[in-house]
Amino acid sequence: MALSIDTEGTDKPICPYCGYVHRDAYEWRHDEDDVDCDSCGATFEYAREVEVTYSTFVIDEAELKRRAEVKARQDAQMKEFLLRLAEQRAEQAQS
């Protein structure tokens, strides 16, 4: 028989039968599943609920300039790599 235990929206899953707090739930593989209580052995259903939040920050001009320079270098390196790769493939196709 299930106890009257508040088991919704808790930090750790709580067995609705005996009140045992499962501290190893991070090991549970699925976001929803059935699990056997480590304390009383009863099977209960759980749902892992994830909340996503966002934070935003101002980027100063110097940092924006630095990031643009890094991106330009990376783009140039990628372009050079792709050109070399295309040349190698062309050479391989001719052999």
Write up this protein.
The protein is α+β, with helices and mostly antiparallel strands. It has two domains: 1-53, no CATH class; 56-95. The protein has one helix spanning 61-94, and strands at 32-36, 43-47. Strands 1-2 form a two-stranded antiparallel sheet. A hairpin with a 6-residue loop joins strand 1 (32-36) and strand 2 (43-47). The longest helix has 34 residues, at 61-94. It is elongated, with a radius of gyration of 27 Å. The chain starts with 31 loop residues before the first strand and ends with a helix. The model has no long low-confidence stretch (mean pLDDT 92).
List the helices and strands and how they pair.
Blueprint: E1 32-36, E2 43-47, H1 61-94
* Beta-strand fraction estimate: 5-15%
Q: Mean of residue pLDDT?
A: 92
Q: Figure out the total of helices.
A: 1
3D shape: elongated
Head-to-tail CA distance between termini: 76 Å
The SSE order reads EEH
For the biggest β-sheet, the strand order reads 1-2
Extract low-pLDDT stretches: none
Percent range for helical residues? Answer: 25-40%
Task: Please indicate the count of domains.
Answer: 2
Task: Describe the structure concisely for a colleague.
With 95 residues, this protein is of the alpha+beta class. The protein is built from one helix and two strands, in the order ββα.
